[in-house]
Amino acid sequence: MPYRPYKRIAATAAVAAIAASAFAGPTATSSVAAEVCAPAFGTFGGPVRPPACWRPYSATSPFNQRLPAGPRVDAASAAVVKRLVGFGTLQNLHAGDAGTALDAGRPMYFSAPTDPRFTVHCTRPWGTCSIEGHVVRIPDAARAPGGEDAHLTVVDQATRSEYDFWAVSSKPRGGGRIDIGWGGRTQIDGSGMGSDAVAAQTATMAGVVRAEEMAGARIDHALAIFVHCDAGRFVFPATKSGLSCAQLGEATKNAPAMGTRFALNMTDAQIASSGVAAWRKPLLLAMAHYGMYVIDTGGTWGVVQESGLASTSFGAADPWVTFAKANGATWWAPDARWVMNIRDGIDWASKLRVIDPCVTRGTC
Predict the structure, then answer these.
(1) Cβ distance 292 to 209 under 8 Å?
(2) Which residues pair with 91 in a beta bridge?
């Protein structure tokens, strides 16, 4: 759904503490401190993509924090889960639609000092855009997907700045002015918060699942999910709500607040013996170990994935298509894309739970 920004609230002490946390380097984000993750941050760009062992943001980011054993469950968990699954079925992952009107993914690009300079212009009349007039180096090949949100993320590896753009409408070759609906800036080694291109005002790439992670059977972070509509309020780590159910003429009772953290209540052994395809199990493990944050609204509900456009715009193969074909995905001719079924085989109504926001804040 189109992004509707509200007035940004002042940062809480918890937000400031997380945003101030440092991270020693690319290997510090790994679940194994001594691991060498290659290729390393600083060498990404063009067809050279981050490997499965790399993840953005600091180890203390809410998106990189594993759930503790026996986390406190929200008192309204059962009712909120019922409302979530009542929105409709979990949407499947897709491949082969990169750059088309069906592409709702979020491509992430890495700029180099030789890339063209673009001056950011925000077109929505919503007040002061925090990145209006900023000059950003963006690869000439970088493109926004053809879907209505037209997200584009650019990471300057020299300054570790992440620029998040929503509704990109114009990006000329060779530099100039890039027109966007709205956007924000955060740090790639920061909290994963404080930007302004998605409803929750989290970083655009926070919680996004990448094809490299799926292929490497390794997802070391929480997942970002979108829901049909929200309760018209937000909880940490979100700092704004999105499309309220009331705006759609629907009840807000038991709708998830923006920032709600769902988690899969299954053990590793239960996931291993669940009978679902092996390629799906790392996704389920991430849902169980880290959870899923509501960061945007639209559709029924589903997991946010990176767009294959981040590779195909450079003439490289779409890693999502490669993965889909290798794992028996279904070709859906009406939409001319591959469908990776992540919906079936799990009783979401009984296996999901809502984690109390105090767990994420570290106050309980």
Answers:
(1) no
(2) 302
